[in-house]
Amino acid sequence: MKKNKLSLVSSIFFLVLAFVFIYAPIVSIVTFSFNNQRSGTQWGGFTFKWYQNFFTNQAILKALSVTLIIAVSATLISVIIGTLAAISSLRFTKKTRNALFMINDLPIINPDIVTAICLFLLFGVFLIPGGYATLLLAHIAFCVPYVLITVYPKVRSLDPNLSEAARDLGATQLQTLFKVILPQIKGSIAAAAAIAFTMSFDDFVISYFAVGDSGITNISIYLYKLKRGLDPTINALTTIIIVVITIIVGLNYIISNRKKGEE
Asked: How far is CA 15 from CA 2, 4, 21, 77, 246, in A?
């Protein structure tokens, strides 16, 4: 009995320690985003001035707008491609489907630097100059695999008789897709969209190689170029990003639970 209690206490202790290790830096950033001083260690009073600086800093706002435009665009396109690929894969033979998913898993398994260099060389071969187009294409390329592996399990669990019944009743392929298949997998699509948006918003290495010397800067590249002597305004920006990501994760959790409840 004592051994069980000691084991439980030690498990709780290490769990708390792990959470402190993970979340202490985040709590520190959020806290000092309201610090009146530029110091990241000494508290100088409560203020919102760094948030005011954020909304008046044109360089940060421009980088944020680029990040959001690319993330939203890449998410929409990758969700469409990945979802259609997941649905279409059911028509393939098992051998072909396994080969498809093996190829799909390569960008996920590969380190970002490998994917970045490959895309950089690919754009060079086709003489595509670095810019918004290469940045968007690069983000779509690494978001689609995540969408496919997220949506496919749900697609695989669908009852094929429903689609066949819809076709027998006179529904076209598009009507079957929009009125029968998509409503059943909308929860998985929402989860895939959340993952794709987060991956795109967060990316640095692939983005850095994709834009080249074009001068286009997203948030991650902007923070990299700051290097030393970070402006406390970045703490405010980071806090806003944390809040946005938390909202996205929360909505995804609610949608997933609601979908499970309906089933």
From this structure: 20, 16, 10, 39, 21
- Total count of residues recorded for the chain: 263
Q: Kindly report the pTM of this predicted structure.
A: 0.81
For tokens 């421009």, what's the residue? 62
Alpha-carbon distance of 118 to 70, in angstroms, equals 20
Asked if residue 145 lies in contact with residue 108, where contact means CB atoms within 8 angstroms, the answer is yes
CATH class of 59-262: mainly alpha
Do residues 187 and 154 make contact, with C-beta atoms less than 8 angstroms apart?
yes
CA 148, 151, 152, 153 torsion-angle sign:
positive
Check: CB of residue 195 under 8 Å from CB of residue 147.
yes
The two structure tokens encoding residue 14 = 């290490």
Segment 79-138, tens digit of pLDDT: 999 999 999 888 888 888 888 888 888 888 888 899 999 999 999 898 889 889 999 999
Whether 143 has a pLDDT exceeding 80, the answer reads: yes
- CA 8 to CA 13: how far, in whole Å? 9
Name which of 253, 251, 246, 245 is nearest 68 in CA terms: 245
CA 144 – CA 261 distance, rounded (Å) = 28
User: Is there a contact between 256 and 192 (Cβ–Cβ < 8 Å)?
Assistant: no
Distance CA 219, CA 227 (A): 13
CA angle (143, 243, 208) in 5-degree steps? 40
Cα angle, residue 221 at apex, residues 124 and 71 outer, rounded to 5°: 80
Return the pLDDT at 177. 82
C-alpha–C-alpha distance, residues 54 and 33, integer Å: 11
Among residues 17, 91, 24, 62, the alpha carbon closest in space to that of 216 is found at 62
Bridge-partner residues for 35, per DSSP?
A: 46
